[in-house]
Amino acid sequence: MPNIKIFSGSSHPDLSQKIADRLGLELGKVVTKKFSNQETCVEIGESVRGEDVYIVQSGCGEINDNLMELLIMINACKIASASRVTAVIPCFPYARQDKKDKVGSRAPISAKLVANMLSVAGADHIITMDLHASQIQGFFDIPVDNLYAEPAVLKWIKENINEWKNCTIVSPDAGGAKRCGGVTSIADRLNVDFALIHKERKKANEVDRMVLVGDVKDRVAILVDDMADTCGTICHAADKLVSAGATKVYAILTHGIFSGPAISRINTANFEAVVVTNTIPQEDKIKHCNKIQVIDISMILAEAIRRTHNGESVSYLFSHVPL
Fold first, then answer.
1. Briefly, what is this protein's role (predicted)?
2. Closest CA to 73 of 27, 135, 8
3. How remote is the C-alpha of 135 from its chain's centroid?
């Protein structure tokens, strides 16, 4: 593949390396460091003039530092005469702050701010995965390819859950039910039943009570969501499903953020397995929790990069896992 360069930010070098290996490319030379006053410094170590540049940086870990590093890398490539700069952001930062939550509130719409920052830095194209709200694509005036983990999730379910034909796919909240590539879509493609948990919140990150809509008695329940942060919701949901008669409970999440008490909650919850993709590095989490399993989605991102570079359609990836 001529005229293409892939650079890795410091948020998830393992994923960047897998993508580069899949494409048969070397990662570009880049040095990121911090000055003593904590300013981020980036040096691109090779020519990018006239090249199609892809920068892989996920919204995880030290989110603000990593976002700033991505913006600086985009800008460095742009002013070094790269022909096109694509930001590959497997987990989009600030995606949950996508709207004003209450009428007349002074809440920011930070996802729009991040979109503006990426555009001003010089990004020509964004590749991301399972956006928390698909309208974030409309915050940009540049093309955004929102890929779905759904094909990889379907493959994992069929290969790892023997009783998958007798399962119920469960959304832990109403928002996830209608999300593109979400719960109803997975239930339809497996031709199984669907259930919903309605939760009432008194304040953010705390669930007050839950109501199950649908039947899971004597079935395997598979909770599907786009992200899990402190895991309060999915652990509550697992208890609810077991008390409603589910034989086993699995959770499948695209972005396993697992902050705060998440790992200890998963360890004590009624899960057979908690399955996440590697949009966020999970090596440290796996050491402390043997229930976590990881689906590798590097081939989906790599194929999206290859197709984008060659000017091909990426819509095939919405329903297929590349071989």
1. Catalyzes the synthesis of phosphoribosylpyrophosphate (PRPP) that is essential for nucleotide synthesis.
2. 8
3. 15
